[in-house]
Structure formats: C-alpha cells, structure tokens
Design goal:
Blueprint lengths: L1 E10 L9 H24 L12 E9 L4 E8 L2 H10 L1 H13 L11 H9 L4 H15 L1 H6 L1 E7 L2 E6 L1 H8 L2 E17 L4 E5 L6 E6 L6 H15 L6 E9 L5 E9 L1
Parallel strand pairs: 8-10
Antiparallel strand pairs: 1-3, 1-4, 2-3, 4-5, 6-7, 6-9, 7-8, 9-10
Helix pairs in contact: 1-3, 1-5, 3-4
C-alpha cells in the first residue's frame, strides 16, 4: 500500500527563483524525519529517537518536478502488522493523524474530523505529547527555506494541501512568552498520559486542542484521576469539563501554545 505526498517550495516573502541546496537538503531531511517518526508513532504508539529505527513502512522519493520546486515522495506500508493497522484505521484517518501532529507545533487551528482518527488519537497514542515535542527540532530545520531564502512550503497528500510552512508558523514554533500570573480555565481533556502528566485540553469536542504539562513535573494522584475521568468520558462522547489552575505560554502574536498545569480543582 502506497500513499503519495509532495512538498512544494514556492514564493513567500521573497519571489521563488531557485532553491539553495543547503536549505533544500536540510528541509527534505527534516521532512523525512517528521513523517517517519510520526507514522511510526501512529502505527506502534512509540516515539523513536532515531529515524532509522522506524519499522513497518518506508518513505521514498518519487520523480522530482521542475519549476518552483516540488518533491514527490510516498509512504509505503510493507509489513503485515502495519498494513493491518492502516486497514483498520483507514488511509484518511492516517493522513489526518499525520497532518495534525505536524500542525500542532506550528499554531494551526486543527481538529480531527473522522471518528476513526479521533478514537485512535485519544485511545491508542498515549505518547502523543512526547511525539509533538520530538518533532520540534526537525520542524525547525524544515523551515530553513523559509527563514534562509524567504520562501514558503506546502505539504500535500496527492493534490490536497495538508500543512503549510511559512514565516508565521516558524515564528510560532520558535518563540514562547510565559505569563507572569496564573489563571483558572475550564476545559475538557482530549488526551492524557498518566505516567508523564501531559495531555491536551479542549473547549468542546469539535475545538482545537492545547497541550498541557505539570508545573515542575509534579502532578497529584487526584489530579490524574480527574483528568483521566474527563478523557474517558470524552471517549464515550460525553464532554466533562475540569477546572484547572494554569500558567499560559503564548506565541509572540498572543496565540496560546501551552498550559503549565499547577492544580486541578
């Protein structure tokens, strides 16, 4: 089973003339890393530190394109285990899961649409926040044609755009402003890992999610129980909000990037 993708580099702040090999090579290497690490995490609920350690599929170049710059590639699932997983969740759900994990660190207002993708995201990807953190480094390198040459890029599945990379996404990825004060928010839980205390808050079942982590890595057993109960309810289509005291971490333009969790009431 093969799924076609492409990365297009085009005019952004600067008009496209040619792609420098240094910037292009770094971007393509980073793209290979984020696609490979994310696909492995979707299949195996495991975040690898090395791209070469992934299994069950391959990421291969297709023919290049002359013009702006379009690099075609494909993800091929080539083991019985990976094929079984993809057939179970569906190709569309896999593409949704891939796209949202690349989009979340970039500040996109993203929410999963299909029931299959939502179920897999909430119930089978326990290391999702570890994955998002793991992708930050290669995503920064992927932006090299953006901040090095003033271009912008779009990752597509066949002809359907999935994620864009531009000055705004680079700024969101690389800047963080921590509020000096705490605040109380009321949110539901769409993802939670009791081992690490990390997860994601949402306003409602259809809203974008925002990551959270325990302040100084400490979270009480009671807080774990409350957060886990909210997640369990959401998996059963019941939205149960929790009240949490947090510190807000924002981008330069004021968008919320992350919450540092102090307590759950």
């Amino acid at each position: 089973m093969k799924i076609p993708f492409s990365l297009k580099v085009d005019s952004g702040a600067s008009r496209f003339t040619k792609l420098g090999m240094y910037y292009g090579a770094n971007a393509l290497e980073a793209l290979s890393e984020v696609v490979s690490i994310t696909t492995h995490a979707i299949l195996h609920n495991e975040v690898k530190t090395q791209t070469t350690a992934v299994k069950g599929f391959s990421v291969d170049f297709k023919n290049s394109h002359t013009g702006s710059f379009i690099q075609k590639f494909e993800v091929e699932f080539n083991t019985s285990e990976s094929l079984s997983t993809i057939n179970y969740i569906g190709i569309d759900a896999y593409v949704e899961l891939l796209a949202i994990h690349l989009a979340l660190p970039l500040g996109y207002k993203s929410s999963l649409q299909s029931a299959s993708a939502k179920r897999w995201f909430r119930s089978y990807m326990e290391n999702g926040e570890e994955l998002v953190e793991r992708l930050e480094g290669p995503l920064k390198r992927l932006h090299m044609p953006v901040y090095g040459q003033g271009y912008q890029m779009v990752l597509s599945k066949a002809r359907t755009p999935l994620v864009g990379f531009n000055e705004r996404t680079h700024d969101f990825l690389t800047t963080s402003i921590t509020s000096p004060t705490r605040e109380t928010i009321t949110m539901g839980v769409s993802r939670f890992n009791a081992r690490t205390g990390t997860g994601r808050f949402i306003i409602d079942d259809e809203a974008e999610s925002i990551s959270f982590s325990p302040y100084k890595g400490v979270i009480s057993q009671r807080a774990k129980q409350v957060l886990a109960a909210s997640l369990k309810d959401l998996a059963n289509d019941v939205f149960t909000p929790v009240s949490a005291e947090v510190t807000r971490v924002s981008s330069r333009d004021g968008r919320v990037k992350h919450y540092r969790l102090h307590s759950v009431k």
